[in-house]
Amino acid sequence: MTAFFAMASSLLWGLADFGGGLLTRRTPALTVVVVSQGIAAAVLGVIVTATGSWSEAGPRLWFAFAAGLVGPVAMIAFYKALALGPMGVVSPLATLGVAVPVGVGLFLGERPGLLQVAGIAVAVTGVVLAGGPQFGGASVQRRTVLLTLVAALGFGTVFALIAEASTTVAGLFLALFVQRLTNVAAGGIALYSSGRRGGEALPSGGFPWTSLPALAFVGLADVAANGTYSVAAQHGPITVAAVLASLYPVVTALAARGFLSERLRGIQAAGAGLALVGTLLLATG
To answer: Is 0.85 topped by the overall pTM?
Structure first.
């Protein structure tokens, strides 16, 4: 069950990143984050009300609140890093965030078997290679590396926090709702501040009404990925769930290949293959 839900998280996060990347080509990244998360929060609000999940309110919601604060910071840092540096460096480097939940799992006493350790090593290597790392060319700015590491730390922290935010299905709906509300509030404040400083808040044509279905997909896929990851972490080792859920860059690369006809470099194809081998080792270990 852990492997199934964790890989579902990878699929959903990978597709959400692909959709978000397409949208940011014509809409400011902060606007994409705020609108997509706002739609997700509205849908979750209906679900929470319909299921009576308010009764699950308790101290664990602070984990969801913290995840909601960290998430936008990580996304902003990630988008800025992508704008400043080569994606072939930024994307695989950001996956280092998996060290946070894996470290938490080890701290809590989890001890993966030899086959699972091998699977973790192979899968992480595959994810890094699937990003198409650039070993030559111009040097990368120190600011780009710093922003990418901030994003990686943020993504990994969200992984760890959301896994602790609930213990029941109803509680998970409420936790995700709180996380999304916090995302929207934090992102909205950042968007307002950016607008006050002269930053672009909307595309030149005004509010992107025609992009609402795509924005809704990005927001709902992201929140669903958080939910499936939480389930995966609750039903199995965090060390395994976190690594399998971190395979989303492979999904993004394959989506770009399938929908945009982007050619995978040899190193990316090799990375995708290694990620699949690592997944099989983790699933059978």
So the answer is: no
Cα dihedral 35, 160, 119, 87 sign: positive
User: Two tokens at 164?
Assistant: 């602790």
Q: Encode the chain in three state secondary structure.
A: CHHHHHHHHHHHHHHHHHHHHHHCCCCCHHHHHHHHHHHHHHHHHHHHHHHCHHHHCCCCHHHHHHHHHHHHHHHHHHHHHHHHCCHHHHHHHHHHHHHHHHHHHHHCCCCCCHHHHHHHHHHHHHHHHHCCCCCCCCCCCHHHHHHHHHHHHHHHHHHHHHHCCCCCHHHHHHHHHHHHHHHHHHHHHHHHHHHHCCCCCCCCCCCCHHHHHHHHHHHHHHHHHHHHHHHHHHCCCHHHHHHHHCCHHHHHHHHHHHHCCCCCCHHHHHHHHHHHHHHHHHHHC
Which pLDDT tens digits describe the chain residue by residue (285 residues)? 788 898 899 899 888 878 887 887 788 878 888 899 999 999 999 999 998 888 888 898 999 999 999 988 887 787 677 666 655 556 666 777 777 877 777 787 777 777 777 777 877 777 667 655 555 554 456 777 788 788 888 888 988 898 888 888 888 999 999 999 998 998 888 888 877 777 666 666 677 788 899 999 999 999 999 999 989 888 888 878 887 887 777 787 778 777 777 666 677 677 767 766 776 676 665
